[in-house]
Every structure is written in C-alpha cells, then in structure tokens.
Amino acid sequence: MVCVYCCESIQDGPSYRKHMVEEHPTFKVRMAFAHVTEGFLKADITDLSCRICFTAFDSLEDIARHLHDMHQKPIDVNLDLGIQPFRLEGDKLQCAMCSAKAICLRQLSRHTQSHFSKFTCEACGKSYSTITTLKHHITYSHSGGNKMCRKCKTTFDTLEARREHVYTSKKCWTNMCNLCNERFLNWKTKQEHLTQVHGLTKKTYVCPECPLIFDDRKKYRTHFRLSHTEDIFVCTCCGLKFDTKKNLDEHRVIHTKEKLFPCPVCSKAFPRKKNLVQHLWIHSELKRFSCTLCNKHFNQRVTWKSHMKSYHPEIEDYQDMMNKNVKILLSVDKSDV
Question: What is the tens place of the pLDDT at every residue in 83-119?
C-alpha cells in the first residue's frame, strides 16, 4: 500500500493506520487527489472515525454526510465520493461492500472495482469503473488493437506475427527481476530465475483460511476460490465445482455427450474446441515438432514426446528443442491448418 500524502510504501493494514495517525495528523485533501488523474482513491475504513469529534462510522457515505451536516465541511453528498472502501483486518482480506473473500490485496482491489463499474462495453457487455479503461478495452479487444504489442506499441498484420514478436523480443517481456533487471517471458520463469540464480527460497503459499500450503501459485488460487469463496461455477448434473465458466463448459460434455466441433476435413467430431484444434494438425502438411537428433518431424507434441522417450531416453531436458518448436508454432498462420 502507498500513502497518498508522502508516497511511502507500507506492508499491512495496522502499520498503515499507525502511519496515518503518527505522520499525518493534519493534511491537505488536494494532495491525495493529486495522485489520481482519473478513477478512485482507496481508503482503509477499518477504524473509521471523525477527526473532529471522534465519532465512529461504518461507511464513507455516513462519515461524509456527518462532516457536511455537523461540521459544515464543503462536501457535496449528492455526488460520488470517488473513494473505494477497504477493510484491512489481520491476514484475511474481505470486500468492505459484500464480504467476498480475496487471496491477495491486488485481487481484492480488482473485486472492489466491480462495485464501481458504471461504463459498459456495448460489444461484449464487460463493465469498467472509468471511461478511460473502457476505451482501452475497446481499443485492444474490438478495434484491432489485439494485434499491437502493449509494450512497444508496434502493430502487426496478424495475431501470429504479434505472438512471434512478443516471444522473440526480450525488451517487450513484462516480467523483470528486481535484482538484476533480467527480463522473462512469463512469471513462472522469473521465479525459477530468482531461486536458481539469486538463491532465493522458493515461495510457498499458505492458505489464510485452512492449514494447506502450496508451492504452486495457480493451484493455490484455484483451491482458495473453490474452497473458500462463493465465486464458483457448479455443475448441475454432478455438483462438481469449477473456478471458471470455461472449465465448467468443458466438463459438461461428459454428461451431454455432445460433439459440437466437427472436423472440416474428415468425418470426426469433438466435444471440445481444443480437441478439434489439436486434431486439425493431423491434416496439416506442416510438421511443428522436430527431433534434432535424428531429424524426424511430427505433427503433434504427444507423438514427438513419445518418440523422445522411446528413442532418446538418455535426454532428460527437452527445453532447447521445445524452444525451437515453439518458435515454429508461433510463426504458423492458423489459416494454414
């Protein structure tokens, strides 16, 4: 968390409140809002009270009306305050507006934004809290902006060309080591670099709601969402829980037996789109995966891995070969498949 008056970084709620009391007994409101060009300030309302008469309040709206009515402060109570409320008590994070649980402060902040989303995209129905974020969404999702590199703003003719650019242009990789400034293509690779090169202990994730500990961030987040929140998707046939609607839809075909994705080349049909996409490579003349040891080529990754295990079991690390194969894959125009 960052103090809006002095920009000092603070780790937790109690320390933040202590900082505000000790370092900023007086302040200028304009200084706080000077840091926000558009959007909302975020305020910890765990111990919310009037600094003039020390009356305690539960909400920002109540204390704003109190300041206006009792202390004649120039607050227009008919307008939005422009402040998002947070309750930061202990290790557990809950939304101050609906009590939904969050796994980290960033996730809580994103959830809180949903209560202030008043600008809706007419194309897809997604909502945003400011007109700027809505315009940003439209640019990248509905105006061809998805072919633009978000880092260097270079525009490409196809999505495949943009993907290849992002993969090969290290300066556009968004994950950076804060110890040596090395850049990485994804978060997982950066974490491996921190442990292997800088000797940092591999991070573990302790669930704040139960005793379970995870060494994988994705598994940790999935567990938290499925076990400790109501933000889940439940199969009406068997009761299984899923963390995303996509996963639920992919599961449902087990019950419906539907195969809605037919192959345009042969008579086969598939229950999931990803199965069809994988199958289409069988009909492609392009061999995406190659074995540099015996110069054999394969349409599918599974057959390539099977070949490596059967004919080259002495090789344990396939990473260099996989990097070359990924470059081939990124350069492929999907219309050729």
Answer: 899 998 877 889 999 989 998 888 899 899 889 888 8
- Alpha helical stretches, state H, the chain: 13-23, 29-33, 60-71, 105-114, 131-142, 159-168, 187-196, 217-228, 245-256, 273-280, 301-311, 319-330
Q: Give the integer Cα–Cα distance in Å for 73 and 81.
A: 14
Report in angstroms the alpha-carbon separations of 6 from 9, 43, 189, 236, 252.
Answer: 9, 15, 34, 52, 52
Query: For the chain, what is the mean pLDDT?
Result: 84
In terms of Cα–Cα distance, which of 269, 266, 262 is closest to 284?
266
pLDDT digit string, tens, across residues 134-173 = 888 888 777 766 788 888 888 888 877 888 888 888 899 9
Structure tokens at 172: 């556009």
